[in-house]
Design brief:
The protein is mostly helical and 78 residues long. The protein has one domain. Keywords: Membrane, Transmembrane, Transmembrane helix.
C-alpha cells in the first residue's frame, strides 16, 4: 500500500510541477494546487503515525474529493 502511495505522490508532484512550468489552460494554477495537495496527502513518509489526528480514511476521502472536483476546475470561465 505504501508503494502505491509513493507512486501516486510522485506522479501528482511531477504533474503539478509540469503545470506550474507550462500553464497551458485557464484553470491550470488551481489544478496545480490540487495536485500539490494530492501529493502531500499521498506521501506515506509524512503520514506515518497519525500526525495532526488525520486518519488514513480521511486522507483517502480528501483525495477522492480532489479527483472528483477536477471537472469543475476544467470548466470554461467565459
Amino acid at each position: 500500500m505504501a508503494l502505491i502511495g509513493w507512486f501516486l505522490s510522485f506522479a501528482a508532484l511531477l504533474g503539478a510541477l509540469a503545470l506550474r512550468q507550462d500553464m497551458p489552460v485557464g484553470g491550470s494554477s488551481s489544478l496545480s494546487n490540487m495536485l500539490f495537495l494530492l501529493a502531500l496527502l499521498a506521501c506515506p513518509m509524512l503520514w506515518h503515525g497519525k500526525p495532526l489526528g488525520i486518519s488514513r480514511a480521511q486522507r483517502v476521502v480528501t483525495a477522492l474529493i480532489l479527483l472528483f472536483c477536477l471537472p469543475l476546475v476544467l470548466l470554461p470561465t467565459a
